[in-house]
Design a protein that fits this description.
mainly beta, 8-stranded antiparallel β-barrel, two-stranded antiparallel ribbon, 3 helices, about 55% strand
Length: about 325
């Protein structure tokens, strides 16, 4: 019974599913007493969660309208989608009945589409980046000159267009005709969907520095990174097509098949706050609000509100949905025994 080998190319049309899932953010940090007798809380970042809530409450208490737009909606989402793109693949099949009604095949398809950050995620990151600047500049401006030579920066970055999907499947072909040059067929099978390469991530870096009373330097860094991940999953395949043989040795095929699987996506968070520690001169300051924010250059005097412990690989979102990828391809078939 003959074997058939095929090389094909085409396009994969992706149906991005709505994802059902759960989301969570790190809990609020431990409270502590400031040097002015008010109460503050430890936070790993001002960009999300309780850190944003704390700073915004302080700004409201001192009469500042500017607030930080939290990164929370981005962290509580998958952040990514997969666009439609071209694909290439290989197929090896062999008749398994004397009538050539049935054939078994193995197919490998490589989708050139790369995972990309979706528009809401990019918009959310930019909103947090820009609002960090306005919120801190406004807060520092209320210090009546006690916080001098201020400098506030807020930057964002992202690693986009990362990782691709591959499909390796085994299937049964049912030829609807067994004679003639034109052979229509139906296909059904299963296999694995494997994501190769890295996945997108976003990062935010906020830095503020000033001198308390023009003498005690404060320099604090707020670094946040959110990264997506996609699980490999079993996939089912259904479809059909038509072969046309120009001779006993070679022909062409037009094939349409749908890969159906679960898309399982997660978002993980890392936050790494750092503060400049000064041996001399040591100083700290805090707002006279409830709650309060404290800035310090030496923990011996008192901790800064921004500080360790940070956050490491905290899963903020886990979700899944049914993904379908319709692959339309055309290829060249070579028959051999």
């Amino acid at each position: 019974m003959p074997w058939e080998f095929e090389f094909h190319g085409g396009g994969g049309f992706v149906n991005d599913p709505a994802l059902d899932g759960t989301s969570n953010l790190p809990p609020a940090g431990a409270p502590f007493a400031t040097i002015v007798g008010t109460t503050s809380r430890k936070t790993p970042s001002w960009y999300f969660g309780d850190g944003t809530t704390l700073l915004n409450k302080v700004n409201a208490a001192v009469g500042v309208g500017a607030s930080i737009t939290p990164l929370d909606p981005v962290l509580r989402s998958s952040m990514i989608n997969l666009p439609s793109s071209t694909s290439v693949g290989l197929r090896l099949s062999r008749a398994i009945s004397r009538s050539r009604r049935f054939a078994a095949e193995v197919t490998f398809d490589y989708n050139f589409a790369r995972w990309q950050l979706n528009a809401p995620a990019l918009a959310g990151v930019e909103a947090s980046r820009a609002s960090f600047l306005s919120a801190f500049n406004a807060l520092i401006a209320t210090s009546a000159g006690s916080l001098q030579n201020p400098s506030v920066t807020s930057g964002s970055g992202h690693v986009d267009q990362q990782g691709r999907q591959t499909f390796t499947t085994g299937a049964l072909n049912i030829n609807l005709k067994t004679t003639g040059k034109l052979i229509p067929y139906a296909t059904a099978g299963a296999g694995m969907k494997v994501n190769v390469g890295d996945t997108p991530s976003v990062s935010l870096a906020g830095i503020y520095q000033f001198q308390i009373l023009g003498f005690y330097p404060v320099n604090e860094h707020d670094l946040v990174t959110a990264k997506s991940s996609v699980d490999n999953k079993f996939v089912g395949v259904v479809g059909g097509g038509v072969k046309y043989f120009f001779s006993r040795r070679w022909g062409i095929r037009v094939d349409v098949r749908t890969y159906i699987s679960r898309r399982v996506v997660a978002t993980s968070l890392n936050a790494t706050p750092t503060t400049l520690t000064a041996s001399q001169p040591q100083g700290a300051t805090a707002t006279f609000t409830t709650p309060s924010v404290q800035f310090s250059n030496n923990i011996a005097i008192g901790p800064s509100s921004l500080g360790l412990p940070g956050v490491t690989n905290f899963r903020t979102f886990s979700g899944d949905g049914t993904e379908s990828v319709v692959n339309v391809s055309g290829g060249v078939i070579v028959r051999f025994r």
